[in-house]
UniProtKB/TrEMBL annotation:
Domain (FAD-binding FR-type) ranges: 152-263
Name of the protein in question: Flavohemoprotein
Organism: Brevibacillus invocatus
Positions that bind FAD: 190, 206-209, 397-400
Cofactor binding annotation: Binds 1 heme b (iron(II)-protoporphyrin IX) group per subunit. Binds 1 FAD per subunit.
Alphabetized Pfam families for the sequence: FAD_binding_6, Globin, NAD_binding_1
Catalytic activity: 2 nitric oxide + NADPH + 2 O2 = 2 nitrate + NADP(+) + H(+); 2 nitric oxide + NADH + 2 O2 = 2 nitrate + NAD(+) + H(+)
Length: 404
């Protein structure tokens, strides 16, 4: 239990953290990786370089500090992050390391302003926050291991099939090398892939959504090759998967995780809105809906640049042919000439309000949205303009959670 005085200190220093938060976490990472270079095997270097994880951690610290006397109110967020941590293999013994370095960074950046009293209060508060994460994650580890076909840590999977889905997306069908059962998962969940790349000092871990419905004897991931762009290096893991990993090669996976999942109790119409490779968890959900809820109206709207980068198109079209409950719409922002000639899409340009309103037979639906950050923001605004309640919009975007 924190004393009222400690709580007061923590709350009064939140504004200071908000000003210096990013500087503190930047310094924190420098210190952390200098003292504990082995942690470079867990953290995503690309996110580090772009400063994304710094913001995620800074935001998490503000949120926790603001709610330090009622941490239960941020439990859903702790669980969301806990899924990611469990999937990465973060353990209780990692928390004091992060705590020590975070405190040292606060001291370093704030200088004399960080009095002993303030540092002591933050040390105590960090302990309380860390305990909340550790206990949530302990339950998740137990569940992952106890579940039938489940496992702890990383398990070897053989690539049973590699299938190109578009110019930029390739699917990998993965079966466990030990020949035993695999854990069930909820549509929308992801796995972490741990990859050793020849010539690289550290191993890399990346999360990929499972892109098929559960109940199959394999896991399928559909990976976008991340090409170099201005301000962003090429994706090391995605390129290695595309170029080097072939059928019969081995990938190391942790058990499925994630809380962006289909609410299968719900029977109202369901609408999926996806941008680019963000469609992967939604395709798992879509397949599950048509398999298990044959009377539930479903709409699948997918935005891509054009047919060349539009993955899994024929698979979704086959579903629509087979299941009357399903309506499918493609929006191409940059259709090719052939797309125009063959009428390969339903809408040119981005998804816009009048078009979306027309497509949505009823706003009384449950919406699942996944794609890049800009896409998510645009869809969120459009759905609100259509009168959809926040509680009916389920979202996940790719990359670290930008805000809590
Ligand atoms: C991801 C917060 C402790 C390693 C994250 C994210 C947040 C966060 C907000 C982003 C989640 C997302 O991407 O959806 C925290 C907080 C902690 C804590 C508040 C302490 C109370 C730790 C510890 C470790 C760790 C002890 C291990 C040393 C990671 C890694 C990621 C992550 C590797 C994935 C992101 C990346 O690789 O860039 N954490 N974390 N975290 N966390 Fe933590």
């Amino acid at each position: 239990m924190l004393s009222p005085k400690t709580i007061e200190i923590i709350k009064s220093t939140v504004p200071v953290l908000e000003v210096h938060g990013t500087a503190i976490t930047k310094r924190f990472y420098q210190m952390l990786f200098t003292k504990h270079p082995e942690l470079l095997n867990i953290f995503n270097h690309a996110n580090q370089k772009q400063g994304r994880q710094q913001h995620a951690l800074a935001n998490a610290v503000y949120a926790a500090a603001k709610h330090i006397d009622q941490l239960e109110t941020i439990l859903p967020v702790v669980k969301q992050i806990g899924h990611k941590h469990r999937s990465l293999g973060i353990l209780p013994e990692h928390y004091p390391i992060v705590g020590e370095n975070l405190l040292a960074a606060i001291k370093d950046v704030l200088g004399n302003a960080a009095t002993d009293e303030i540092l002591q209060a933050w040390a105590e508060a960090y302990g309380v926050i860390a305990d909340a994460f550790i206990s949530v994650e302990a339950e998740m580890y137990e569940k992952a291991e106890r579940q039938q076909g489940g496992w702890a840590g990383f398990r070897a999977f053989r690539v049973a099939k590699k299938e190109q889905e578009s110019d930029v997306i390739t699917s990998f069908y993965l079966v466990p090398q030990d020949g035993n059962a695999i854990a069930a998962y909820e549509p929308g969940q992801y796995v972490s892939v741990k990859m050793e790349i020849p010539g690289e000092k550290n191993v890399h871990i990346r999360q990929y959504s499972l892109s098929d419905s559960p109940g199959k004897p394999y896991y399928r991931i559909s990976v976008k090759r991340v090409d170099e762009e201005e301000g962003r290096p090429a994706g090391k893991v995605s390129n290695y998967l595309h170029e080097q990993i072939q059928a019969d090669d081995v990938l190391w996976l942790s058990a499925p995780a994630g809380d962006f999942v289909l609410d299968s109790e719900e029977t109202r119409p369901i609408v999926f809105l996806s941008g680019g490779v963000g469609q992967t968890p939604l395709i798992s959900m879509l397949q599950t809906v048509v398999e298990r809820q044959p009377n539930r109206p479903a709409t699948f709207i997918h935005a891509a640049q054009n047919s060349q980068v539009h993955a899994l198109k024929s698979q979704v079209e086959e579903l629509a042919d087979k299941h009357r409950q399903l309506s499918v719409y493609w929006c191409y922002s940059q259709p090719t000439e052939r797309d125009v000639e063959s009428k390969a899409y339903h809408k040119a340009g981005h998804i816009e309000l009048p078009w979306l309103k027309e497509m949505l037979a009823t706003p009384n639906a449950s919406f699942y949205v996944c794609g890049p950050v800009d896409f998510m923001r645009a869809m969120n605004t459009l759905l609100k303009q259509c009168g959809v309640a926040d509680s009916d919009i389920h979202v996940e975007f790719f990359g670290p959670a930008a805000s809590l």
